[in-house]
Automatic annotation (TrEMBL):
Cofactor binding notes: Binds 2 [4Fe-4S] clusters per monomer.
Family: Belongs to the QueG family.
Function field: Catalyzes the conversion of epoxyqueuosine (oQ) to queuosine (Q), which is a hypermodified base found in the wobble positions of tRNA(Asp), tRNA(Asn), tRNA(His) and tRNA(Tyr).
Positions of [4Fe-4S] cluster 1 binding: C204, C207, C210, C264
Residues annotated for [4Fe-4S] cluster 2 binding in this entry: C214, C230, C257, C260
Pathway recorded for this protein: tRNA modification; tRNA-queuosine biosynthesis
Official protein name in the record: Epoxyqueuosine reductase
Top EC class, one word: oxidoreductase
Keyword Zinc: no
Catalytic activity of the protein: epoxyqueuosine(34) in tRNA + AH2 = queuosine(34) in tRNA + A + H2O
Gene responsible for this protein: queG
Cited PROSITE patterns: 4FE4S_FER_1, 4FE4S_FER_2
Length: 325
C-alpha cells in the first residue's frame, strides 16, 4: 500500500469514526430531551419496509376485521414503508407517554377508557413532538421530519416494538415488563441516521387472561383482534347503530374499553402519570349511571372540554349509554 492509499484509508477510517460518534451523540441528545419533555421512553429504528407486518395486515383486512373503518384500507404501502410516507426518511423515533390515572371512576358508573379521562392526547403529544423536533433542528442542524400521533398511516405498535420499547401482546397492545401498556405511542420520522435499538422478546408466555376476559370475544386468536367485534370499535368508530346481538355484552363501557389491559398481569406495574393535562374534570370520576343517563349537552361540553370523547359527539355518547341501559 503506497502513501496515497494509506492516506485515503486513514481518511476513510477517520470519517467512519466521526459518523459513528455523531450518531451516538445525536441519539443520546434526542433520548435525553425526550425524557426531559416527559416521555416515558424513546426507541429508534431504521426507516424501512415492515416485511413481517405486511402479510399480517393484508390478511387482517381481507377478513374484514376492520369493520367500517375503511380508512384502514387506504395507503397500504405507506403504512408499511415510512420512506414512501416521508421522502428521504432514515429513522423512526418512537416515543411512549404514560396516561395511567391515579384515580378511576366510581364503581357505580358507566365506564370510560382511561386514555380519554383528560385532554385529548393528540394535542398534548403533538405539542411535545414539535418541541422535540425543534430541539433536534437547533442542536443537530437541518433535519427534516414529521410528527405522528395516531393520525396518519403509521403502524405505531410495530415501530415501537421494532425500537425495543416493548412487545405486541396477545391483545395486540404494546407491552413492557416495567410499566405494562397504559401509554400512548407516537413517532418522529426524520431524515437523520441514528443508532438503532433492537427489539425485545415476548413475555406473554402461556397467559391468556386478555383473551379469556374479552366480553365480546374480539381476540379471536393470540395476537389477532377482530376490530369489528371490539367494544372500542362499537362505542367510538361505528357510526351506525350497535348490532343488537351484542346487547348485554359491552360490560357497561360507554366509550372505549380497557378490559384486556385491566386483566393483564404486566399492568400490575403501571404507575400514575405526571401530566396535568391528562387529569379528568372533577365531575367525571364521581358521576353515577343515573348522572350519565340524564347528561345534557351542556354537561357533556363542560366535562369533556378538549377531550377525545368529543370525537363520538354528544349524540354518540347518548347512543352508547342508551344501548347499555
Amino acid at each position: 500500500m503506497d502513501c496515497f492509499e494509506v492516506n485515503q484509508y486513514s481518511e476513510f477510517v477517520s470519517e467512519s469514526h466521526k459518523m459513528i460518534n455523531n450518531k451516538l451523540k445525536h441519539t443520546k441528545l434526542i433520548k435525553t430531551e425526550a425524557k426531559r419533555l416527559g416521555f416515558l421512553s424513546c426507541g429508534i429504528s431504521k426507516a424501512q419496509f415492515l416485511e413481517e407486518e405486511a402479510p399480517r395486515l393484508e390478511k387482517w383486512l381481507k377478513k374484514n376485521m376492520h369493520g367500517e373503518m375503511r380508512y384502514m384500507e387506504n395507503h397500504f404501502d405507506k403504512r408499511l414503508d415510512p420512506t414512501k410516507l416521508i421522502e428521504g426518511s432514515k429513522s423512526v423515533i418512537s416515543l411512549l407517554l404514560n396516561y395511567f390515572p391515579s384515580e378511576i371512576q366510581n364503581s357505580e358508573s358507566y365506564k370510560l377508557s382511561k386514555y380519554a379521562y383528560g385532554t385529548d392526547y393528540h394535542f398534548v403529544i403533538k405539542d411535545k413532538l414539535k418541541l422535540l423536533l425543534s430541539f433536534i433542528k437547533d442542536e443537530i442542524g437541518d433535519v427534516q421530519g414529521r410528527a405522528f400521533v395516531d393520525s396518519a398511516p403509521v403502524l405505531d405498535k410495530a415501530w415501537a416494538a421494532r425500537s425495543g420499547l416493548g412487545w405486541v401482546g396477545k391483545h395486540s397492545n404494546l407491552l413492557t415488563q416495567q410499566v405494562g401498556s397504559f401509554y400512548f405511542i407516537a413517532e418522529l420520522i426524520v431524515d437523520l441516521e441514528l443508532e438503532y435499538d433492537s427489539p425485545t422478546t415476548d413475555h406473554c408466555g402461556t397467559c391468556t387472561a386478555c383473551m379469556d376476559a374479552c366480553p365480546t370475544q374480539a381476540i379471536t386468536e393470540p395476537y389477532v383482534v377482530d376490530g369489528s367485534k371490539c367494544i372500542s370499535y362499537f362505542t367510538i368508530e361505528l357510526k351506525e347503530n350497535i348490532p343488537t346481538e351484542f346487547k348485554g355484552q359491552l360490560d357497561d363501557w360507554m366509550f372505549g374499553c380497557d378490559v384486556c389491559q385491566d386483566v393483564c398481569p404486566w399492568n400490575r406495574f403501571s404507575k400514575a402519570h405526571a401530566e396535568p393535562l391528562f387529569n379528568p374534570h372533577p365531575e367525571l370520576l364521581s358521576m353515577t349511571k343515573k348522572d350519565w343517563e340524564e347528561i345534557t349537552n351542556d354537561t357533556f361540553v363542560k366535562v369533556f372540554k378538549n377531550s377525545a370523547v368529543k370525537r363520538t359527539k354528544f349524540s354518540g355518547l347518548k347512543r352508547n349509554i342508551n344501548f347499555l341501559k
